[in-house]
Amino acid sequence: MGDGIGPEIVPASVKIIDAAVKAAGVAPIQWTELPLGREAIDTHGKATPDETLAALDTVDGWLLGPHDSAAYPEPHRSMLNPSGTIRKHFGLFANIRPAKAFHGGNAIVEGTDLVIVRENTEGFYADRNTFAGTGEMMPTPDVAIMHGIITRAATTRIAHEAFKLAMKRDKRVTIVHKANVLKMTTGLFRDVCRDVAKEYPEVSVNDFHIDAATVHLVRRADKFDVIVTENMFGDILSDLAGEVAGSLGIAPSINSSDKQAMAQASHGSAPDIAGRDIANPIAMILSSAMLLRWLGAKFDDDAVLKAADIVEKATELVVSEGTMTPDMGGTASTSGFADAVATATTRI
Going by CATH, does the domain composed of 1-94+253-348 fall within 3.40.718.10? Predict the structure, then answer.
């Protein structure tokens, strides 16, 4: 279930998924908890044990709780964190991160409803952009070097994900880059996305430099539809977009390949509030709904798609009725909010 607030928000999500699956007439899900994070270091000697990876290899999808790798003892702190390890091991190249304001929530920009499509395997995250080793090194104690890697193949792949998603939404894509400075790397990213755009003539396309994109998100996030960008830019923009929509605690995400998918909240483990039953579980709940939707689409299962709809609508209903955790201006506890949403699944 992960570190920090993971043992609070993951069970909350499981409770709601179980309720939604029952309401949709889907067979009950058989859950298996796997070792991960700080506890796994103590019991297995690794934050991401081999047995966890082997078990995940046998399934189509799973929930991942947050991790607090910055607090791990060495050498584990300096290793690729659990999320990065799993994404890299299974080739989960697409990180889809919606940011949607709730009616009755405390959004900075009302009407925000966008999705950030983040390339997950390369870019400027040097701890995961190479086949072996890392793209970061120190030739001397006073010199640090990082490789940023952009490839045509990976950019083409993520661009198609973005445009296919846009075709299901408002048919608008924004490419975010920094080609005025990083001309070869993010310039390649921008140009490949533009080439892919030609295959989707119904979708309108524009682009912004990363610095300009942050300004536009703060001022007019409600004007964006789908944003496609590289790894590090996507991580930064999605956290910003989550706050603009109301709270990072409501920002869900899914990491996927063509074969498997992992639901993971966009936020971290929030160790400062762990164990206090005040963490916002919405991001994890909606990430779980995204996983249900991915599975329903993959297996053409309308009942599973219905379960995803129930999770999302029940969450929206509870927030609209004024039940929210403290980060959204409410007084509900994590468990109390989860109970309210689970009950609301019978009203959808």
Answer: yes
